[in-house]
Write a structure and sequence with these properties.
single chain; 8 helices; 7 strands
Length: 190
């Protein structure tokens, strides 16, 4: 519960930690896709869900933080906001045309089998987050005190059943803290 309390604090009083703009990888990956059913895992205050909804996607966002879900409901008209841990949410089977996991790290790895099953054939998975190397830089610590980021190739190993369209371990401007940091980005198709 300490983790949820920390996220509640972030969304209630520390909005300077994250951008309000949609994720650039998400925008690029969905630019030419026809809208369908999208799932935003760990949606936070809803910036990516709002973006997708503005393009005509039918978006469901799942957020464990009550404060994040509250903000998403207030700011994200046309988005179905579910206040729940993703582990407790029924992802379904072949239900989603698009699933995104932007800066949610461990949950994407832990729930990979369910995520793959939940994608429709031809569905797209878009993931971006910190690389585990970010912990060595000492400029960023996990918001909840735990290890932060993906280890090298961890996403590739967990999503072997998908066809990887793009994978990179790089440096770039992070959505969180808005600093140059080691990042992992993946776009994959079922």
């Amino acid at each position: 519960m300490a983790e949820v309390a920390r996220w509640n604090q972030v969304y209630a009083s520390e909005p300077h930690l994250y951008t309000r703009e949609p994720n650039a990888l998400l925008a690029e990956a969905t630019r030419d896709l026809p809208p369908g059913a999208a799932l935003d895992i760990g949606m936070g205050e809803g910036r990516n869900a709002r973006y997708l909804a503005s393009l005509g996607w039918k978006v469901t966002g799942v957020e464990e933080s009550g404060e994040g879900a509250r903000l998403a409901r207030e700011q994200s008209a046309g988005v179905d906001v579910v206040s729940s841990a993703i582990e407790e949410f029924d992802l379904g089977r072949e239900r989603w045309d698009l699933i995104i996991g932007i800066y949610v790290h461990g949950v994407m790895l832990r729930e990979s089998a369910r995520i793959i099953e939940a994608l429709r054939p031809g569905g797209l998975l878009v993931v971006e987050g910190f690389h585990r190397d970010v912990m060595q830089e000492g400029r960023i610590v996990g918001l909840t005190g735990g290890k932060l980021g993906y280890a090298s190739n961890a996403l590739l190993r967990k999503f072997l059943a998908l066809r990887v369209l793009r994978y990179e371990e790089t440096r770039g401007l992070a959505d969180w803290w808005r600093i140059d940091a080691p990042l992992v980005r993946m776009v994959a198709k079922k």
